């Protein structure tokens, strides 16, 4: 229901700057996470944040601000806000907005722009920023009339949270934010239905649901493949009800981890480029139910995993995604939660062709147990330098059920996606897989901690290369009291690139992939944070417990991991990988 408007104020006016009007609207939308770096164009907005008590945080780099907003939104499903001044501030947002756009994350970006009287007269820092940003947002909203600010903020939230969520750009020229005008008081209201994703839910066609149910009911080895849309829809209960009632195993992408607990007996784990047992199950399945997943390159092992003869039922909010990479038998266009609920009802009513799947589902825990035994060399490794798999094994042991693990791009996400176990349904694993940019770990940990609140622990995984990009945000975290833990995989290299060079060109043939080894624990201590260097695998668990117990400052664990490029990736076959010309190694 929309916020109630006081009828006595219908004819009242409120005189304020455009920047103040923007702040008033964000307060009505209960925005409590704003990241940015100011400039003259947005000064009235910053003053509004001060006067109105909005929780605006100075960030040290605009890209990190976009990453922090992205992670906050993933944990809460509520749009965070990132702002930037014109020119370099706006263009610094590109990578973070591309991440949110590709991953379907609700986010509001605000950019200042030139005074319209003087645009294209070589104004300081002027750039064609709208043209640069347009491809990486759902919609560009340029404010040309100050009185429309309340309306256009509502539009921004509606677009960001409905359909497939994503980032929306609000661009405000200098004269719009600084102008002082009379607004109609009745214009200041928020549409509460668009404060959170998924807004404006829709159901798939009923006849398509019945056809899908018939196929599922007749299948001997159905399998559910889940992507990140499960989190945006909040469809955990609906998924579990379908899976448990009809005895269907569930596999997930890196973004879909947490669809059900990784410890659930029906969990088949990660599928795609890396797999526990799921890829073999996909090959043997006679009916695949795809939920909120784009079936992109990583999920399909470069579009080769799902054979052309498979029955594929694809649930997605965007009709144009269905059939884009994989031939689809039945398309269910709509919200994942509603589609799964409808399927469950239709299957309950379908009493024909019911197949006994007892033997099938009994395979899953046995196969998973066998996989865990095969992964023990990594999860329990005593290697020195430390095997990253051992880090994941210790995290599985010590992290509480409600913890959030944030994984940077590159191999941090790959190790976490394959080996980390979520212990309950929900977004307990946050990885920037929309764009897979390096440098997400620290600002992602910051945003996730603010979104999760002080009572939930957040651990961020990053390599030394990723930490070098964004360590300045430890200052931001310290200032804001976002006291998360960062685990730096210190291998004195751009590890993912070095591992690929090793696989493609052979041992010793490395170029521009080595780094100077820093003592990141000492750097953290110099920044007023807690820092500890870990060189012995037996020190990992005590160090992690110490870090989790420290809630008075951010913590950095500088973990010295393997320098062997043949052992930097988590796949069991990476040491003997043969790469053919044109292939991308896994």
In total, how many beta strands? 20
- The whole-number mean of residue pLDDT values reads 94
Helix content: 25-40%
Bulk shape? globular
Overall radius of gyration = 25 Å
Question: How do the strands line up in the largest sheet?
Answer: 3-2-4-5-7-6
Q: Name the structural class.
A: alpha/beta
Stretches where pLDDT falls below 50 for ≥5 residues? Answer: 572-577, 581-586
DSSP strand content: 15-25%
Q: Please, how many helices?
A: 23
Distance separating the two termini = 49 Å
Q: Largest beta sheet, briefly?
A: 6 strands, parallel
Structure description:
This protein has 586 residues and is an alpha/beta fold. Strands 3-2-4-5-7-6 form a 6-stranded parallel sheet. Strand 2 (34-37), helix 2 (43-52) and strand 3 form a beta-alpha-beta unit.
Keywords:
586 residues; alpha/beta; 6-stranded parallel β-sheet; disordered C terminus
In short:
Helices cover 37% and strands 16% of the residues.
How is the secondary structure organized here?
Blueprint: E1 13-17, H1 18-28, E2 34-37, H2 43-52, E3 56-58, H3 62-76, E4 80-84, H4 88-91, H5 94-103, E5 107-113, H6 129-133, E6 139-142, H7 149-161, E7 167-173, H8 174-178, E8 180-184, H9 206-218, E9 222-226, H10 229-233, H11 236-246, E10 250-252, E11 267-270, H12 278-284, E12 287-291, E13 312-316, E14 330-333, H13 336-349, H14 358-374, H15 376-379, H16 388-398, E15 404-407, H17 411-419, E16 429-431, H18 441-452, E17 458-463, H19 464-470, H20 473-480, E18 485-490, H21 495-505, H22 520-526, E19 530-534, H23 540-549, E20 555-560
Parallel strand pairs: 2-3, 2-4, 4-5, 5-7, 6-7, 9-10, 9-12, 10-11, 12-13, 13-14, 15-16, 15-17, 17-18, 18-20, 19-20
Antiparallel strand pairs: 1-8
